[in-house]
């Protein structure tokens, strides 16, 4: 979940698929992973004060093999 991207890079990569994952909000990145690792949530919390206000939130589904995501060895 990239956060900082200089303007020159934003212009260069505009329209590419991965740009939808670039978060333009500054703050603390926090990830909450569900048991088994199949889904997770990403948050950006305020870094300007101690409120820890949620500035951005997005849910994801893991594209990794569930056994590998859970740390299970074959």
Structure description:
It is a single chain. The protein is α+β, with helices and mostly antiparallel strands. The chain has one domain (7-64). Helices cover 15% and strands 28% of the residues. The protein has helices spanning 7-13, 66-69; strands at residues 28-33, 39-45, 54-61. It has a three-stranded antiparallel beta sheet with strand order 1-2-3, with no helix packed on it. The protein starts with 6 loop residues before the first helix and ends in a 5-residue tail after the last helix.
Count of the separate structural domains: 1
Helix-strand makeup class: alpha+beta
Task: Summarize model confidence as the mean pLDDT.
Answer: 82
| Unreliably modeled segments | 66-74
Kindly provide the radius of gyration, computed on alpha-carbon positions and rounded to a whole number of angstroms.
15 Å
Helix fraction?
10-25%
- The share of residues in extended strands comes to 25-35%
Main beta sheet: 3 strands, antiparallel
The total beta strand count reads 3
- Describe the strand arrangement of the main beta sheet, using strand numbers: 1-2-3
What's the topology here?
Blueprint: H1 7-13, E1 28-33, E2 39-45, E3 54-61, H2 66-69
Antiparallel strand pairs: 1-2, 2-3
Which short descriptors sum up this protein?
74 residues; alpha+beta; three-stranded antiparallel beta sheet; 15% helix; 28% strand
What is shown here, in short?
This protein is of the alpha+beta class and 74 residues long. The protein contains 2 helices and 3 strands. Strand 1 and strand 2 form a beta hairpin.
